[in-house]
Design brief:
SH3 type barrels; 5-stranded antiparallel sheet; 5 strands; globular
Length: 72
């Protein structure tokens, strides 16, 4: 699970993140972290929609090469 401190860094920097939910790249969510609680986080996508996601998903910067969850 990603820490509160790391989520705050990502929110303040405004960097786009990639949330990898499974092995299919089309299911990734790309956007900016806007809020979170103990179990979920909210990401604003490019189309301005907000998506609630579990904090246990793999979260990485969009600028980095994509990792699949099985590589960890």
């Amino acid at each position: 699970m990603i820490t509160d401190e790391r989520l705050n860094e990502l929110r303040e920097s405004g960097e786009r993140v990639r949330v990898v939910r499974d092995n299919l790249e089309v299911n990734d969510v790309v956007g900016i972290v806007v809020a979170w609680n103990d179990e979920q986080m909210m990401v604003r996508k490019r189309n301005r929609r907000i998506v609630k996601l579990d904090r246990n998903y793999l979260i990485q910067l969009e600028s980095e090469p994509r990792q699949s969850p099985t590589e960890l």
